[in-house]
Amino acid sequence: MTTLDEDLEDAAAASGGPVHPGLRRARAWLSRAVEPGTVDLWRYVDDHGPVEAVRRLRDGRAPDTVRSLIGARAEQDGTLADLQRAERCAARLVIPEDDEWPHLPLHALTLAVAAEPDERRHQTERTKALVPPLALWLRGPGRLDELVDRSVAVVGSRASTAYGEHVAAELGHQLGERGWTVVSGGAYGIDAAAHRGALAAEAPTVAVLSCGVDRPYPAAHGALFARIAETGLLVSEWPPGSAPLRHRFLVRNRLIAALTRGTVVVEAAARSGAQATARRARDLGRSLLVVPGPVTSAMSVGCHELLREGELGAQLVASAAHVIQAVGSFGDDLAEPASKPATARDGLSDLAARVLDACPVRSGVSPERLAAVAGCDVLEVLRVLPALELADLVQWTGTGWRLAPPPKVRAGGGSGAAP
Predict the structure, then answer these.
(1) Please, which residues have CB within 8 angstroms of residue 34's CB and are 6 or more apart in sequence?
(2) DSSP string, 272-324
(3) Which of 74, 86, 179, 305 is packed most tightly, with the most Cβ within 10 A?
(4) String of b and e for 125-143 (b: at least 16 CB within 10 Å)?
């Protein structure tokens, strides 16, 4: 069994052809040695290539400022164990050199990191920096590039309400039915409801985790993650076995925002990770969509604040059709206007509406009385009354005109005369 350094040497000497095992192993080493979101280290790997960057980091040739970002991990090597552990749980390592890598969605992160200052003290904090991933561990049969091509992030509070979970599940189901992939974080509350909605529609869904793909967190979602892995994908920047440390939840938010065409915030408190994902989406030029909630709900305060901040350009959405119109193709994915119940009064002229309003409910009155109340001539009243009668809006009582009574409702729920 070759060592990491031997594989790296072979990969450095290789030219062209398929992805060299040493290159994949270099990326695997970086996924454990480097915490995602580190601007300087990503730039170092981008400048020198992953193989040469790892060789320099391990033998001390890398600048101290870069090597300090790894610290004691520089001398460690768990790549073979990580790859074997991934194989045992049917996971795989996908790297930028693979065909499956979602180059187009993640290009926004490349553009964002290029705008970061050179001096570290002026750079964005690591947990908020928009830095591309160095590699991704995947568990599931779906191809990452295909699943995220038409995808939407649905995020929200862990401490969700029944209203929020209902909306998230409906969105997940309706988006799945229309061929869109729901991407979320697999957490309690809104995330889980969105995943379950998509699964109920027999559609693949993607969960971006803050721990290894073999380590369900929260543990209560073990069955949910197993279902996701049957048709969709579990995605993580950390190798199998990695723990869900607190700072990693913040780091993975940028990946949820970057992989998708837009982010839907269903519920978010005043301080919420969902709000952080929403702001990452706007920073990356993605659509930011917000579901409003009751103004009395603490779980919707963050949603309403996002809508109030005009510079964010957040759009209010109330259905999957609204979401697809915002993130879909121009002219193709348009939402139908909200349906309005038709009534017999629709289409009445101004004169007919005035005469109808003048009709009493109980006792009938003469056309002269209707003309006085409606403010028109008696002949005009006589001209519109037959049409109103045909529409079952007015009724002749034998002594005058009145409003027609509403149709009686049958016991079975239908309308019409009682039997």
Answers:
(1) 41, 69, 70, 134
(2) -HHHHHHHHHHHTT-EEEE----TT-GGGHHHHHHHH-GGGT-EE--SHHHHH
(3) 86
(4) ebbbbbbbbbbbbbbbebe
From the list 296, 309, 260, 229, the residue with the least C-alpha distance to 155 is: 260
DSSP code of residue 124: P
Kindly provide the b/e burial profile for residues 266-292, where b requires at least 16 CB atoms within 10 angstroms of the residue's own CB: bbbbeebbbbbbbbbbbbbebbbbbbb
Domains of the chain (ranges, CATH numbers): 4-134 (no CATH), 137-327 (3.40.50.450), 350-403 (1.10.10.10)
Show pLDDT as tens, one digit a residue, over the chain (419 residues).
789 999 999 999 887 778 999 999 999 999 999 999 999 999 999 999 999 999 999 999 999 999 999 988 988 999 999 999 999 999 999 999 999 999 999 999 999 999 999 999 999 999 999 999 999 999 999 999 999 999 999 999 999 999 999 999 999 999 999 999 999 999 999 999 999 999 999 999 999 999 999 998 999 999 999 999 999 999 999 999 999 999 999 999 999 999 999 999 999 988 788 888 999 999 999 999 999 999 999 999 999 999 999 888 999 999 999 999 999 864 455 556 666 677 778 889 999 999 999 999 989 999 999 999 999 999 999 999 999 999 999 999 999 999 998 876 555 544 444 33
